[in-house]
Structures are given as structure tokens and as C-alpha cells.
Amino acid sequence: MFSRLSRPWAVVVCGVPVVGLLVTVLAAPLPFAVAQPGMTADVLGANKGTPVITISGADVRDTRGELRMTTIEATSPDTRVRLGDVLDGWWSTDQAVMPKDSVYPSGDSVKEIERHNTEQMRQSQDAATEAALSYLKLTDDDVKVTLRLADVGGPSAGLLFSLGIVDKLDGDGHGGDLTGGRVIAGTGTITPDGTVGAVGGVALKTQAARRDGATVFLVPKAECADAKSELPKGLRLIPVTSLEGAVESLAALANGKGSVPSC
């Protein structure tokens, strides 16, 4: 026998599958990572009590100011990110939702990802050293550079490593500091020939930079728009495409001579 349901009950009964679906969606893990501004470190100074840059075989300058590499912190590869976390991240100005595959290599275990990031950091340090010494017309036969930065992986500190080496050995090229005494921050990969590459997460990195006192941020030129999207007040963006261009821009900013590009 067919019995007609009253309207309120019909709504409740028809709504049950929808509610069940919503509960399932809310509880299901999603292929995203949630990121936020991470730590910064002055490559001209020490990190956890150990100098970031150690140089032998050449005279090293006493430097003023800071050159801060920047990071983002993301949920770990095995964290179960759910719809609520994604929605919170989308609405928050100090978080970003990113495809997990863009943060971590797909299909790898946590240990494999850690090894991958460590290897990327090692390659970045080698490239940064080669780029800086080549810019200064020096060779690693004459100058020994050691780079140490604890608990950080990936290649995005390459530009700042190179700038730190240049500042310690040559400054602005005219006896002054490359920083001009300022707190300079930035990000960018680097190749042995000095080409600067994009990194991702720059909007979060600008927030980390400003939080830690930076007034200038070096950003790969291709990521200017991303950097401007959530730019903190008091932080000036300088786009870069090469180590040489970054040095020239900082030297012009430091001595007040020449033009300094902007995004």
C-alpha cells in the first residue's frame, strides 16, 4: 500500500542521503596540503648556533644587515586534510591550500620525500656556490665555501645563498654592504650560471619576511603577481631574473645610485 508522506517528513527523508553525502565529504581526506608562513634565516649569520656560510681561502668581510631566506610550512605528507581544513585555508590570508603533488612528490613515502628535499637542498647549495664564485670570477680551487642550514629542504634558498657569499666576499663591489644595512629577504632557485627560477608559495613567504623585520623582498620576476596578491605593508618587492641583476639592484638600493626595478 502506498502512503503519502506529509511535507515535513518528505523533506526529512529526502534530505537524509544529502546529509550522509555531506558527512562523507567532510570526513574524507583530500589531495591537498595546507601551508602557512614558515621560518626565515639570515644567511649572513648563524642558524641554531652554526654559521650558515663558512668561507676559507679568501678574506671575508664583516657584514651589516641581514639576508633572510624564507620558507613555508605545510602539513606533512601523511596528514589527512579534509574539506573543513581546505575551506579554512581558502578563507584565511595567512594560509594557502595547495595540491599535495605540488608540495611533495607523488607516491613517495615520508622518508623518501625527506631524502628528496635534502638532496634538492644539497644541489641548490652547490649551484649557489658555483654561481656566486663565477660571478666574482673565483674558482672553488681557491675558495672553499660551506653552507649549513638545519631542518630546511628544497631548492628555494639558492638565490639567497649566492647573495650571502657575494656579500661576504665582495659586498656591493665598492666597499659597502650589499644589504645597505637593511633586512633583505627573498626566495628563488638558482642555476650554476646564475639564472633565478620560480619557487611557489611567495605570498606566504612575504608574510614570513615582514614578520621577521624585512623591508625588501627579492622575488623571481615570474611570480610578481603572486607576491603582490597578499603583500604586507612596509615590504618593497624587487623582481629578479639573475644573480647579477639581484646584486645590481641591491647595490643601487644601498648606495642610492641607479634604478631599482619593482613589480
Automatic annotation (TrEMBL):
Q: Which GO terms describe its biological process?
A: proteolysis
Keyword list (alphabetical) reads: Hydrolase, Protease
Q: Which InterPro entries match?
A: Lon_proteolytic (IPR008269), Ribosomal_Su5_D2-typ_SF (IPR020568), Ribsml_uS5_D2-typ_fold_subgr (IPR014721)
Respond yes or no to whether keyword Protease is given for this record. yes
EC numbers, comma separated:
3.4.21.-
Q: Which GO terms describe its molecular function?
A: peptidase activity
The chain positions of domain Lon proteolytic read 153-239
Domain of life the protein comes from: Bacteria
Catalytic EC class? hydrolase
User: What's a Pfam family in this record?
Assistant: Lon_C
Q: What is this protein called?
A: S16 family serine protease
Q: Which organism is it from?
A: Streptomyces flavalbus
Lineage, highest ranks first: Bacteria, Bacillati, Actinomycetota, Actinomycetes, Kitasatosporales
